[in-house]
């Protein structure tokens, strides 16, 4: 195992961790000050501050602005399958016929998933751009206006580790949102007991770093995702992660239920305070990110039941704070991980999973760049 020490015999990784912990109160204060004066606008599992909306400008309509093409830059391509990210100057208004053709009539063969939000399909535009189409039901013009305004807020959201929204369709009493297609599925497939290969240690670290960067970007733009979990982290064949599934309109139009009756809220990723009161904050995302880190370290899923009926977090918590953290490691990579990297990830995970949100890191504090 690789270790770096200074002249006093102290690990440089330990110095990095201590430096971040020392800065916690100062950075937390800075982050709060940045948000001060902004009124949150709820968007499904997310909150977008009004400042984000004010930063966007309406482009005059131009048919060429609606065109979706593939990036020419090599840096935007997956090195394995050579797929490239789309390039759009503005989100496109798709017709129902456009998406009917792209998905081959929303065929079973093109179906990706079914959820309480609605079905999801893969598709292909005439210019060979691969897309993902998520269908929602809308019942009146007011719902349509709300959906459109929510989607419009994300016109300029662009980051290497955030899935891109390409456009939407509001026809035939349905809303369909179109996303870019990622070439290697979602992280949860690699955590299941299926036929997917086990992730290497290097791949797990890369996914941790990329997800942290994407979430830091969202929070820096005053966006709370509200549903960070393995199934919402999409991957390229290079194992570059992108945060997706924004679930527009879900809170507004779902029948009200008690918080703990919501399967999504009690799926192993939800922070304790969210289960109590259902209120969103950036610290909710941080907690969920901590659960994802724990899944990557252990190779277990958040929904797995462990001996004694404990949840993944309940089982791992005693090991996170002590010297037995090596017992957390997925047996499939027990001989290949870097000890200092593991120590670093475990300490970050522990800080993200604090029961008291005031003791948790912000994403500004989750710096994995030195791993």
UniProtKB/TrEMBL annotation:
A GO molecular-function term, please?
protein kinase activity
State the species of origin. Medicago truncatula
Q: What region holds the Protein kinase domain? A: 106-371
Q: Which Pfam families match?
A: PK_Tyr_Ser-Thr
Which superkingdom does the taxonomy of this entry point to? Eukaryota
Q: Does the keyword Cell membrane apply?
A: no
- InterPro entries this protein is in? Kinase-like_dom_sf (IPR011009), Prot_kinase_dom (IPR000719), Ser-Thr/Tyr_kinase_cat_dom (IPR001245)
Q: What is this protein called?
A: Protein kinase domain-containing protein
Keywords for the protein's UniProt record, in alphabetical order: ATP-binding, Nucleotide-binding, Transferase
- Keyword Nuclease on entry: no
């Amino acid at each position: 195992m690789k270790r770096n020490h200074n002249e006093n015999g102290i690990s440089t990784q330990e110095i990095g961790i201590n430096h971040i912990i020392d800065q916690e109160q100062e950075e937390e204060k800075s982050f709060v000050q940045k948000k001060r004066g902004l009124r949150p606008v709820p968007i499904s599992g997310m909150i977008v501050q009004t400042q984000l909306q004010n930063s966007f400008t309406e482009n005059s309509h131009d048919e060429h602005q609606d065109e979706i093409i593939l990036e020419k830059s090599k840096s935007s391509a997956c090195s394995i399958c050579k797929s490239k990210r789309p390039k759009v100057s503005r989100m496109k208004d798709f017709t129902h016929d456009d998406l009917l053709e792209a998905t081959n009539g929303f065929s079973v063969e093109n179906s990706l998933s079914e959820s309480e939000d609605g079905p999801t399909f893969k598709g292909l535009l005439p210019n060979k751009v691969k897309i993902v189409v998520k269908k929602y039901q809308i019942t009146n013009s007011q719902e349509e206006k709300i959906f459109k305004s929510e989607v419009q807020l994300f016109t300029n959201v662009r980051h290497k580790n955030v899935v891109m929204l390409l456009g939407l369709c509001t026809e035939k009493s349905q809303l369909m949102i179109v996303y870019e297609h990622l070439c290697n599925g979602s992280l949860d497939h690699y955590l299941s007991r299926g036929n997917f290969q086990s992730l290497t240690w290097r791949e797990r670290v890369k996914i941790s770093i990329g997800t942290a960067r994407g979430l830091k970007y969202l929070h820096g733009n005053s966006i709370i995702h509200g549903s960070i979990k393995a199934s919402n982290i999409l991957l390229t064949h290079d194992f570059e992660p992108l945060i997706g599934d924004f679930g527009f309109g879900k809170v507004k139009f779902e029948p009200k239920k008690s918080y703990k009756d919501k399967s999504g809220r009690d799926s192993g990723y939800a922070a304790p305070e969210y289960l109590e009161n259902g209120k969103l904050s950036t610290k909710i995302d941080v907690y969920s990110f901590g659960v994802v880190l724990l899944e990557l370290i252990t190779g277990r899923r958040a929904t797995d039941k462990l001996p004694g009926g404990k949840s993944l977090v309940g089982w791992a918590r005693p090991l996170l704070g002590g010297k037995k953290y090596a017992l957390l490691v997925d047996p499939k990579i027990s001989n290949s991980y870097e000890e200092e990297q593991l120590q670093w990830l475990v300490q970050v995970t522990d800080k993200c999973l604090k029961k008291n949100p005031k003791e948790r890191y912000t994403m500004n504090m989750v710096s994995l760049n030195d791993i």
